[in-house]
Design brief:
253 residues; two-stranded antiparallel sheet; 9 helices; 57% helix; elongated
Length: 253
């Protein structure tokens, strides 16, 4: 990967931070413009029509600035999707001859055998696909009452879906200016704390690629409440409901 998974998440948070600032400025400029227009109207410098036209003009400018600011957040999704698409390409050079020799040898592989091979090739999209298809077509029959589920890792497409969901959630949080509470811990200190909270929760569903590590998420994405307490999102839930989002500029994605 050109960038680590953590770097992509951090970039999304930075873009959301920038958008939050731009949105706040756009709203403040709109309120100021409305006050100026009202003053001109009350001083008879603007007629009724001129006043209403100016209010509509200010609203259009504000909405365009907000939408433009939000759109930048989505660019990181396209960047990440492109990299995952590259990782997921069918490439014969990624086929491991030793593993294929085992699969074609006629040996009866157990669940544990398939799991060992899946672990060995967890970041190889081609071998992961071959192993999953072979396993599903020749599922081992073993004695006992338990059912073994072989984990084949996370495909590039699955990683894209997890990341896209994260960015969409951050987008809507930015759009709404969300700064919710964590259950039993109080209100979050800043909107960035909420973006970091979302990042921690999303990374719980994202498997590390290669030698990546997600062991320092509290440091990479710190979350702090207004009482100054640093929180670990892994054991917390947000009191903020997705139903509270303002979907005025919801992207089609």
């Amino acid at each position: 990967m050109k960038k680590s998974t953590i770097e992509y998440y951090k970039k999304a948070v930075r873009l959301a931070e920038g958008a939050s600032g731009a949105i706040s400025k756009a709203k403040a400029d709109y309120e100021h413009g409305c006050e100026v227009a009202k003053g001109a109207y009350e001083a008879d410098l603007l007629g009724e029509k001129g006043y209403q036209d100016r209010l509509r003009e200010l609203k259009t400018e504000r909405d365009a600035q907000i939408e433009n600011s939000l759109s930048w957040i989505l660019t990181v999704v396209d960047e990440y999707d492109a990299e995952m698409a590259e990782l997921g390409k069918l490439d014969g050079n990624m086929v491991d001859s030793g593993t294929m020799a085992l699969l074609n040898s006629g040996i009866n592989l157990s669940h544990a055998d398939y799991q060992e091979l899946a672990n060995r090739h967890k970041d190889n999209a081609v071998m992961t696909r071959i192993l999953r298809e072979r396993y599903n077509a020749n599922r081992p029959q073993e004695k006992g009452t338990g059912i073994t589920i072989v984990q084949f890792g996370q495909s590039p497409a699955d990683r894209s879906e997890v990341f896209s969901k994260f960015v969409r959630t951050v987008y809507h949080a930015c759009e709404s200016g969300a700064r919710p509470a964590l259950s039993g811990s109080g209100r979050l200190k800043t909107v960035t704390d909420y973006y970091n909270f979302i990042a921690q929760g999303s990374l719980a569903d994202m498997q590390p690629y290669g030698d990546e590590s997600f062991d320092n998420l509290d440091k990479d994405f710190p979350v702090e409440t207004e009482n100054g307490r640093v929180e670990n999102a892994g054991n917390k839930s947000s009191d903020f409901s997705s139903a509270d989002f303002n979907f005025g500029f919801t992207p089609i994605r």
